[in-house]
Write a structure and sequence with these properties.
The protein has two domains: 210 residues, HUPs (Rossmann fold, 3-Layer(aba) Sandwich); 79 residues, Tyrosyl-Transfer RNA Synthetase (Orthogonal Bundle), CATH 1.10.240. The protein contains 14 helices and five strands. It is elongated and about 75 Å long.
């Protein structure tokens, strides 16, 4: 299949916080898995991050870390257009054209905005306008398949409505994007059994130090059954993580150790820790490589920026002409 025949996949990630293994299985790995079948565009949503980060050093550090994390998990810059949102300031320009087409009551319907306001966050205009900027991210490079978590699906729906509105007003200009909700990915449980999430403080950091990872894994909550008692693997938080990390035939042996008794939770956690460290060994090495070679990272980003600028240049020109500027 040639590149022309592949659909354009596009997704952005906000640079915020240290990624955990829920983010890896639920999002990062999906982009890697899709990079062969789609013409993938993955960007660091640094303009969106300004809605929460207003400190230069903090933002720069988070952006840098996210780039390293993505390269480490296997996003391949030869296959994927990897760029920073701010490399194409035209998205902010397009946001303004869209702003003049959509209404305030329509934007007020956004769940994510309503949730934040309900939590007592005093909303900036930027936060309110978040879905419009996201629509520009998607529509300007011609994104067709948009992999996102469930919480972002409505935003892609809004991008589709904006595309339709623009096309109706000014003539056919934008493709209507489709969300690809990664529902088939099981929710990765945290160390306390709830969904693993930064906001619950129950994470296992994807690229933590050995000590941090050990502390998190040894702290996974279990019931109080002793080593010899039979246990149900399907209700055990440790086993749920084994299913993601541990391969056969060891996984079946562990299952048997639970069901027949004989395998204690402590032992099960130690095996998980060993397997997890092996699982991330190659990714860690890659991350260190890029960390020690900032010139290569800079080159990857420069090439990504050039590629995406070329893609959006003609489109924004067409838009300016159509709106009458
Ligand atoms: P957090 O809940 O830690 O703040 P985010 O909301 O930033 O995570 O999520 C970033 C991406 O990772 C989203 O696509 C989300 O669906 C995915 N993700 C987050 N936590 C999990 C989890 N526990 N299991 C599966 N996917 C997850
Ligand atoms: N809002 C998305 C999130 O928080 C990140 C994002 C910004 C995005 N622009 C996008 C995702 C465009 C997909 C397409 O996860």
């Amino acid at each position: 299949m040639t590149t022309q025949q592949k659909k354009t996949g596009l997704s952005g990630i906000q640079p915020s916080g240290v990624p955990h293994i829920g983010n890896y299985f639920g999002a990062m790995k999906q982009f890697v898995d899709m990079q062969d079948e789609l013409d993938m565009h993955v960007f660091i949503a640094d303009l969106h991050a300004l809605t929460t980060i207003q400190n230069k050093a903090d933002l720069e550090g988070q952006v840098h870390n996210l780039i390293l994390d993505y390269l480490a998990v296997g996003v391949d810059p030869e296959k994927v257009t990897l760029y920073r949102q701010s490399d194409i300031p035209e998205v902010a320009e397009l946001t303004w054209y869209f702003d003049c087409l959509v209404t305030v009551p329509w934007l007020e319907r956004a769940h994510s905005y309503k949730d934040k306001v309900a939590k007592g966050i005093e909303p900036t205009v930027g936060l309110f306008n978040y879905p419009v900027l996201m629509s520009a991210d998607i529509l300007l490079p011609g994104g067709e398949v948009i992999p996102v978590g469930k919480d972002q699906a409505q935003h892609v729906e809004m991008a589709r409505e904006i595309a339709r509105k623009f096309n109706n007003t000014y003539g056919d200009t934008f493709r209507e994007p489709e969300e690809y909700v990664m529902e088939h990915v099981a929710v990765v449980p945290g160390t306390d059994g709830q969904k693993m999430s930064k906001s619950y403080g129950n994470t296992i950091p994807l690229f933590g130090t050995d000590a941090e990872i050990k502390k998190a894994i040894m702290g996974i909550v279990t019931d109080s059954k002793g080593p010899d008692e039979p246990k149900d693997p399907e209700t055990c938080n440790v086993f749920a993580l084994h299913k993601l990390i541990t391969s056969e035939p060891q996984l079946s042996e562990i299952r048997e150790g639970y069901e027949k008794g004989g395998l204690g939770y402590g032992e099960s956690k130690k095996i998980l820790l060993d397997n997890y460290l092996s699982f991330i060994a190659a990714m860690r090495e890659k991350r260190t490589y890029y960390e020690e070679n900032p010139g290569i990272v800079r080159q990857i980003l420069d090439e990504g920026a050039q590629k995406i600028q070329k893609i959006v240049h003609a489109k924004i020109k067409e838009v300016r002409e159509k709106v009458g500027l």
